[in-house]
Amino acid sequence: MESTGKYYVPLYRIISDEVFHVDVVHPKYVKAPRGKKNDKRDAKRIADMYMRDHIAEYSIIPSADILAIRDIARYRRKTVNAISAEKNRMSNCL
Fold first, then answer.
1. Which residues pair with 25 in a beta bridge?
2. Which of 1, 45, 50, 63 is the most buried (most CB within 10 A)?
């Protein structure tokens, strides 16, 4: 599985809880060559790379506890930034 943004996390959690073994790879290591590209070709190419052991590094997925702490920290940072923005708008009006 290619890790792109935060969208792979729910899918990873669902699949890895089952009997499947899932490795997450940074997109830099499985970048497609130029040309026509689509999801089917990308999936086939990544599977071929995995079977031939051409993938150099795998991403480390933190435990559920650490992911929860990260979500809380992200939410706090977003809230603090919103409060600061409102304070700045209010002081600009005065």
1. 2
2. 1
Same structural domain for residues 10 and 44?
Answer: yes
Q: What is the pLDDT of residue 2?
A: 63
pLDDT of residue 21: 75
CA distance 26 to 1: 9
C-alpha span between 17 and 23 (Å, rounded): 13
Q: What's the CA dihedral at 12, 13, 17, 23 to 10 degrees?
A: 30
pLDDT at 5 over 70: no
Residues near 93 by Cβ (< 8 Å), separated by ≥ 6? none
What's the pLDDT score for residue 45?
Answer: 81
Count of structural domains within the chain: 2
